[in-house]
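Example 395.
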Amino acid sequence: METKAGDPAAFAHFDLHRVASPAFVVDEAAIRRNLSILADIRDRAGVKVLGALKAFSMWSLGSVVAEYLDGVCASGIYEARLGREEYAGPHGDKEVATYCAAYKPEDLAEILKISDHVIFNSPGQIARMRPVIDAARAAGCVFDIGLRINPLHAEGEVAKYDPCQPHSRLGFPIDQLRAEHLEGVSGLHMHSLCEQDFLPLQRTWAAIGSRIIPFVKSLKWLNFGGGHHITRSDYQRDSLVEFLLEIKSKTGLQLYLEPGEAMALDAGILIGEILDVIDNGMPVAITDISATCHMPDVIEAPYRPAMLHEETEGQPVRLGGPSCLAGDIIGDYRVPGGATPGRRIAFLDQAHYSMVKTNTFNGVPLPGIWLWNSETDELKQIRQFSYGDFKSRLS
Ligand SMILES: Cc1ncc(COP(=O)(O)O)c(C=O)c1O
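Predicted structure in complex with pyridoxal-5'-phosphate:
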């Protein structure tokens, strides 16, 4: 996969020695810029925008997210709790929409208490969980039930990230949807895009709109999921607004978007340090950043993260992490200033889907988390991890 972002923006002038390595540094001004673009779409289109915690759940910024958006979407019990605890806003009125491919009954009881929308993956599961749903309502919980549909219209470039791949487990196939599946259901949810601009959304609606329209009378809302790269400079935002206004007037439904990446696009870097350099047919450098522990998408997607100030000429150096995994390779780079021990490096666009995926395989220490404001230059260490964090996850 190609990275679609990778603009250093204000990080072009950030001194990489200001923090202990390794470290995620997130620019609050860049986050606010992204959130204000999302809020502008919300206001112009009269829709609701929820931030997807799975992509970016740096909860020390929960109150900042709440300043701009209508709430958050969660992938299960833990994110729903985090959303309720940290993203509720000063009046406690921000929304939490939870979707999980399958709920455990004991988690669902708690999820129904703390979520505004609880979205199921199949009518079968809604029917099976009816006693839990009824009990929650009897106890005074107020929530809407939603159903995730699978549009069966693939727009994804990579099968792994395409919920419309053949035999996908994500969403109820739209060609099976009948009125009886929507009894007690207030909204439909779909999510089938990944880092995409407006046209794939438009094509998706063109493919499935006529199947949804017959059901809208019994519904309150329609959630278009995430995968919209709205804050990318080339995203067709005016077309999105026009499209949403049109769907709204055609269906009369409250529309939702739940972007994740777009909240944190180009808003954070991962800083590391070169620890050693060897020669094995080419220069190979070992860093205190691990692909497998700190940027697992580099291996999983796979993709090559952009490096801050990477040079265009000269000998490339293979960079890899300190773990024992032979494939713990970040990629081949022309390191600015040359790859020598002690050299600081930074990978761009690491605020989303990296911080949320870190792990301590091999006992590799977790990067610290720092908040910088590129407008005021204020820099705060939000979190430093220690041996205790590694140990507490094991027994
Ligand atoms: C249901 C759902 N909503 C929202 C998102 C957020 O997507 P993105 O971060 O690509 O905008 C995802 C991502 O996988 C998702 O599965």
